[in-house]
Write a structure and sequence with these properties.
With 303 residues, the chain is α/β, with parallel strands linked by helices. It has a domain of 174 residues: Rossmann fold. It has eight helices and eleven strands. The strands form two sheets. Strands 3-2-1-4-7-8 form a six-stranded parallel β-sheet, sandwiched between helices. A hairpin with a 2-residue loop joins β10 and β11. α1 packs across α5. The protein starts with a strand and ends in an 11-residue tail after the last helix. The mean pLDDT is 96. Bound molecules: zinc ion. Zinc ion binds next to loops.
Amino acid sequence: MYVGVFADIEGSFGIWRMRQCRMGTREWQYGRACLTADVNQVVAGAFDGGAARVLVKDTHEVGFNCLVNKLDPRAEYLGGHYIKPSLFGDITGLDLVLYVAIHAGSGTQDAFFPHTHYGIFSELRINGKAVAEMDIYGGYLGELGMPIGFVSGEDIAVAQALATLPWAKAVVVNKKKETYTSGEKSRQYLTAGREQLRRTAAEAVRCASQMQPLHLKGPLYFEAVFRTEELARKFNTWNFPRQGATVAWEAADMIEGFDKLNRLTFLPKNLYPIRRPLAFVMRNYFRIKNTYFAPQPDSEGAS
Ligand SMILES: [Zn+2]
């Protein structure tokens, strides 16, 4: 079995504030170590559960967050964003996806760093219903035949994911500062939590045959509510129908809908013809920057 471990960062054990997720900060350098530890547990769990091959797909921001030299050497690593064959790059042949360190969707009350796809949106809706990333990425991967069988993250994020992916195995991660800055008690919480990641990931892989590729029935009507009308105007270079801060588009399925979302978010019309060399340059720039020019970590008193 070929298993993909997809990594966001907000829902990692050890992370309690936004700055720990912001690329380039010393706190993020600490957050990267937290994420890498979580990812390694899930990779180990995937192998325990019977995976023959594991691919770590780094997805947060520009897609270079894991500390690659500290990753389980048995796993392959795919960082950065792509145009072809998918935004995630070449993920062909994955039998199951385990999604580490997720967060709640845009507009969720009292959630840690809630957003869907990108911070410019205050809400994303499909067919009138507010969605989180597991709906969109899950639906996209589902149409490629890949089920999501595991999630970890804050309780509300996990609840949202399980509403969409009821078959998935889940680990809940606390987001309070004192959980991670209370000495021995924190170390025990971290150890127990990460062991749970490994056990639960193994269970997900063993139960892979019960996992279902998510399939949202088309046609799909997308609405992206931007934080301001000005942002909506600026990003909507594709002239999708817009009303105030809300931009809408239709798609036959999630693959088309996700493609249009990515055009709206990352690919202005004037840059679209050079999207492939652009993605190549961006990827290599950030790969080098985040690998060789990273700041010293600041754990701000974490245990
Ligand atoms: Zn993220």
